[in-house]
Each structure stands twice: as C-alpha cells, then as structure tokens.
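Hey everyone, long-time lurker, first post.

I ran two proteins through the pipeline my lab uses and got sequence/structure pairs for each. Pasting them in order. The first:
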Amino acid sequence: MADAPLASVLFVCVHNAGRSQMAAGFLAHLAGDRVEVRSAGSVPADRVNPAAVEAMREIGIDIAGQRPKVLTAEAVRASDYVITMGCGDACPVFPGKEYLDWALEDPAGKGVESVRPIRDEIRGRVEALVAEIDSRAESEA
C-alpha cells in the first residue's frame, strides 16, 4: 500500500496558464508522490502559455499536456497549502490552511527569454516549499 502524500498544495494564478502551471510542474517533478499537486485560476485561459511550456521543456519538465482549470472552493478546501500568485482576493479562505502569496511577474504575453527568470524564481520557491513540507513531516513523525 502506498504512503499517503505528506501534503497537498494548490497553486493559483489568474489564468492558470503560466506561473501556477510552472510551479505545479516543479512540485510534481521535485516531490513526486510525496505531495499532491493542484493548480487553478480565477479566470482560466484557454491553454497553457506556450512560452511557459517551452521554458519548462528546456529543463526537462513537460507541462504541455496540462489544461487551465477554474478555481473552486473544493480545491481550496482539499489543500493544505494554497499559494496565490497575484490573485489573492479571488481565493476563498478556510481555517487550517496555510496561505502564501508569491509576488511573481506574470509571464503572459512574454517570450521564452523573459519567462526563464520567472521560471527560475518559481523553482527556488518550490524547492524551499518542498524542504518545508519535508521538515514538517519529519517533526510530526
């Protein structure tokens, strides 16, 4: 029987096409089955930002098959961590959840050259998040 995930994380940005998709891709890549990963947007786009897809592909992470999803109260309720990226007002607040707001530049309308630094900043933040989740799990064990 597989172990239950240590935590569930929901990444939220307005269009669920760039920042939140890259963050979800990094978390799934770095944490594997240890963390349940979701992403959503308050006003989802029709497709994931092609520059974000390309920037992630360059480092071996494929988010091309992802689709923007609408933010729901159920997704927030089911998550331990809710990380917003520029749409904090749109997220319902429930007690017992950890809310973080990452101020990140929006990659919408930018080319891959401009998306790379955003991608790299997201990677650093996700790596720190994984370390925090692992540390909490160890202290609770």
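...and the second, right after it:
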Amino acid sequence: MAKHPVPKKKTSKSKRDMRRSHHALVAPNLTTCKNCGSKKPQHVVCASCGYYDGRQVLNVQA
C-alpha cells in the first residue's frame, strides 16, 4: 500500500488564518454613467444606455 505524505505537526489556527488572509473577496469598483447616471463597472459600456466615453457604442432596446 502506498504511503501518502502527511503533515508532521498540526497547523495552528493562527498559521491557517494568516495563510487565508489574502482570500477575501473585493467588491467591484462601480462608477456612475455620465450619460444616464446608472451604476456600471469601470471601462465597460453602460448596459442601460449603451454609451461609453461620451459616445453611443451600442443600440439598447428600451
């Protein structure tokens, strides 16, 4: 039977939590559309009006 590697010592709660300190999720950085005022991600065409950087890029059905 093959032997699998196992930890020699139990990992402490402190060490485990320090390892997981970078696992937190960050909220998306939303901005307001300059044309319609709705919330949208940065550098993305507005889904509600179709404008990007002051120009209409998409034709959105109302």
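Reply from user beta_strand_b:
Welcome! Quick read of the second one: The beta strands are 30-32, 39-41, 51-52, 55-56. The chain has one helix and four strands.
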